[in-house]
């Protein structure tokens, strides 16, 4: 009863607009201290070759070695949606699969279910079986042991279905420089912030983003 | 009457025929059984005629099945003579002929168990309890003779003969403390599946028949009826409970027979104690319908085990076959007491009659039917889980397939019979038919009544038709699914190990550990059947006494069994003639 | 006859179409209490609509039972909605098909077919859930039967509509047997619909009891299973409201039937409020403790039976 009363008293704490975006989880931009052509991955010793020409979101692990040449813009809407599935507009079930992460992506993904972000208001939910899932969220580098499991999970999902690659490791191999995973939706970041994740998910199902 | 003579003649000939040629014996037995069913249907006088139909159907299906099953030289003659004994016991009106039939039915079964035995004591236990049953029944019959001065079944003025004989019949039915008589001979005795079917389905049917017949002739006892009612209720619970934790297919089914016999005994108890005449006749019909439901379904499930390569559900090795899968599911649903099958109607009627009795009594005595009803309700819950376990681990969770047609077809036919039979129960419940044309049921209601006013009503026919009809409508509205085949999702790993039947019931082993005396040792979880361990101790004492005897005479040499059979036959013939 | 058919149609459609809404409202409120904006109250409809359009993945060794079992169970649920007083307070077309106990047996039939259909996938997850459900089935099935009889015995008939009218009399309503049965049935309802403290829907405090039964299904069969789940919760909940907790207010006639749908909505808001408090304040019971929860419900219903005759 105590929990119930507390919950009623506190009211709804979900954000109406993105308000608390951490700067270093957003898009980076060249700030013009030197000539842009002079600043390359080699000169900055970028571990993932994410510079040049320009900033390559898919590879960046936000190590800040390029600072102050590159600085965050505050734009968190970095996700790239290659295929929009309108049928998931109001009901979108996600099955996360960890094929080899450090754990950061998992934690950030988990955060979109918090009262602050609340994925359910957009009709997005987590599920615990691929049979009920509309999208497979894959995190981490493709390790040998998980390759087969990942294939089976994809196979187990009913059509129509999306694959969402979350975080630099899944998209480009990250600092390990392993293979990239083919995905319909790409969410860069290391790890991506809940805002970035939610925005991409909403756009993937035909929304205008967050 | 001609039909009866023909049936008995054919059944009488079948052991002889089986001695010469096994198949011809089974064919004669099938034909005789078919005529027996015909006799029961055409001469339908009271509820006892329904026993003929049920028994005849069991024999018919089992005999036809045996044509494709039996591999042992002596099985045919033994099996057919056992059936002959049952036919004699069912059709006679003479006490001694009944007993003779009862023995002719028991002894071949005993020999079969002796021939197939895995353990020394199984045939012995079966015989011991069989003879205990016979002695009690004999005592009851003798008392009846003393009271009435007649050797035929005749109305009694005292309940004592019924009480004595009832204990005898209850031993045979495997009622509570004697549960061992049901499962042990079948399992440890390793009885062949066709013999298991008649052991479990129709031998107990004969015992129920005797009990019902005696009950019809006896003045209405007060206390004893309630005892039967309560003991039956506890048998339902413990039977279903032990069945649920068994992993041996035949032990499971044997305990399920205990459960069903308990329900039948309860129904007889309601008949004996019913405060109104209407309720009494309702519960009598219920008894007969329950017998029909149990006999058919149990026969089918035992015949099903005949197609298993391994009798342990932990190693599910039934040959997969679509026909037998469907048949098995239908039989199991009846065994679980689900509408619209015969078993569903019987379960419904039994529970209704118990609670109607509680309502009509409306006194402190109501506690007995209420508590019994609640215990039976729990037992029915266990029965559903048990039957699911059987079907899942015998049929669904296995990979090997079989192309066999005939035996699965028999199983399917039995399943369909039991499904359609639910709607045929209208015939038996003739005095209790009702209708409600204003609400769309111009016919086809069975109303449970304790006085002129109905208590409740069901319509098995409508339950048979409507869900499928609505289901078809749903398909029409939403369309058929677009199907893609894929492997089972097993967290990304290939599906190698399947969940076992042991794990399926292990929660209960642990949760109800006090009742099962669950013991967790180094070699896993073990449970104890309290009733059996008690009986076993007594039996061991008995065995040590009679070791010498058993070494000399019961040494599983066939000649001795045959001699014993012939002697028993002669003794009874002499007694009957005299 | 025509009137009865129209009333039946309103009752059945009122069940099938409105049932998901109550789940949506409950989930929405639960979300709000846990500080979230939460999903739309129409979310269950969105989910069903999407699933009906999706492909159905069938495990390679599964048979037709896996695919068409859900259609059958849905059919049985629809049949039950003809039978028990879930909207309209008088018997409607086809109501006498089964009585109260027959209704309980139909619920057992549904769970039997549902389990077989799910197990046909041969999934170990499903087997795990089935084994858990089977462990409590004996108490749940028994309580459903005894609680239905508790009212049958006090009225002398197993007709649920008569029982509803009987309980609306205050002296019968306040009798000890009725109150015990009311509590007992509510505890059973929590178990049957997978509410806390027994089980929780969603991803935290999962009981993996009934949830796992739909683990392998997808597409249309999954939609029907989910929908069936909503209908089951609605049927049992409405029986509890109409026969046990609030047996008052039902109007008769065709127009009355429309009014009854609104009345049911009001009654359901009360039930949802009770469940909301329970679900947001209680923690899940350990698996083996669920047995105690059900045993208490069972014993209460047996006491209710005893009190009603003695």
From TrEMBL, chain A:
Its cofactor is [4Fe-4S] cluster. It comes from Candidatus Marsarchaeota G2 archaeon ECH_B_SAG-M15. One of its GO terms (molecular function) is 4 iron, 4 sulfur cluster binding. Pfam families: Oxidored_q6 (PF01058). Keywords: 4Fe-4S, Iron, Iron-sulfur, Metal-binding, Ubiquinone. Belongs to the complex I 20 kDa subunit family. Residues 102-202 form the NADH:ubiquinone oxidoreductase-like 20kDa subunit domain. InterPro entries: Complex_I_20kDa-like (IPR052375), NADH_UbQ_OxRdtase-like_20kDa (IPR006137). PANTHER family: FORMATE HYDROGENLYASE SUBUNIT 7-RELATED, HYDROGENASE-4 COMPONENT I. This is NADH:ubiquinone oxidoreductase. The lineage of its organism: Archaea, Candidatus Marsarchaeota, Candidatus Marsarchaeota group 2. It comes from the Archaea.
UniProtKB/TrEMBL annotation, chain C:
The chain crosses the membrane at residues 65-88, 100-117, 129-153, 173-191, 230-248, 254-278, 290-309. Its main location: membrane. GO terms for cellular component: plasma membrane. One of its GO terms (molecular function) is lyase activity. It comes from the Archaea. Keywords: Lyase, Membrane, Transmembrane, Transmembrane helix. InterPro entries: ComplexI_Subunit1 (IPR052561), NADH_UbQ_OxRdtase_su1/FPO (IPR001694). It is a multi-pass membrane protein. The keyword Transmembrane helix applies. This is Formate hydrogenlyase. It comes from Candidatus Marsarchaeota G2 archaeon ECH_B_SAG-M15.
